[in-house]
Amino acid sequence: MSDLATHRPDQAYCLLSALEAGFVDVPLDYMIDIAKPGERANLPALAFLLRHSKTNDTLVFDLGVRKDWQNLLAPAYLERIKHMTFGVSVPADAADSLAQGGLTPRDIKYICLSHIHFDHIGDAGPYTNATFLVGEHARSHIEDGYPKQQNTLYRADLVPLERTRFLDPERWPALGPFPHALDFFGDGSMYIVDAGDGHCPGHLNLLARTSPDGGWVYLAGDSAHDWRLITGEASIPTHEVYGCAHRDKEAAALHMRRIRELVETYPRVRVLLAHDVPWYEINKGGPGFWPGSIDSL
Questions:
Q1: Is 185 left (phi over 0), alpha (psi -120 to 50) or beta?
Q2: What is the sign, positive or negative, of the torsion defined by CA atoms of 18, 218, 165, 143?
Q3: For residues 273 and 199, what is the distance between their CA atoms, to the nearest angstrom?
Q4: How many Å apart are CA 293 and CA 288, to the nearest integer?
Q5: End-to-end CA distance of the chain
Q6: How many CB atoms within 10 Å of residue 230?
């Protein structure tokens, strides 16, 4: 395993704030094998705002759920949501949450989508100045999306292709327990991490410094839907009706083990899941949400 990059004198880092971006009520026994049959969980769909300490460049990681999801998802995806018995509510989307601190979507320079599932892609339309960052392995699913292919889950207008960078991790170097990571700003302040295709093609995570002296945050997207999968208290199930929450169960489990290794090796790394129920229950409405910021470890 390679080490995380050490901090330099006058090290750049990122200020991190959580954004409310909807909720998805799901069958918990679809997510973890220790859930009781029929048990459900209402999961926050968290987005995150990062601001570079020197340049003040803004990046939003994930956009959560869009308010008009019922009208603007591909028909096949709407059918899937119905079949999966998901309940969706969006009291505030990512743009509403940015407005709480005086930012508009036009103020955001980068949008990094962890992956292209409906509870992460939000509404790209208002972010007219942003460059979108998407995993390379999601490219074909978007470019060949609905309505070009009628039965696909993904729309061809999911992101503005003329302002989208598809990131191919094949030649990225290793970082910590992860085989491939990109030093995005070139100053060690933020790394985009290849999460593999275990959950979804083109899945990306983000590792950012949160202090100049060795604090970090790891934004894990849907690498795990429940913390007990990271700790090893639960395993990934294959539900008799809904199937598996991950595209490749073994690859997803391997990436979870790498995140566990990160937590165990580096005590100053805070890991946050996109649907981090324990963190959300403690911090909802608190200073970790924009215009406040999450304290560094």
A1: alpha
A2: negative
A3: 13
A4: 4
A5: 22
A6: 19
DSSP conformation class of 283 = H
- Joined together, the tokens standing for residue 137 give 């392995």
Contact by Cβ (8 Å): 183, 173: no
CATH number, domain containing residue 18: 3.60.15.10
Q: List pLDDT tens digits, range 148-170.
A: 999 999 999 999 999 999 999 99
235 assigned to some structural domain: yes
* Tens-place pLDDT, residues 127-143: 999 999 999 999 999 99
Residues, the chain: 297
Amino acid occupying residue 148:
K
Q: What is the span of the domain harbouring residue 210?
A: 14-283
For residue 231, the SS3 value is helix
Q: Residues 26, 80: contact at Cβ < 8 Å?
A: no
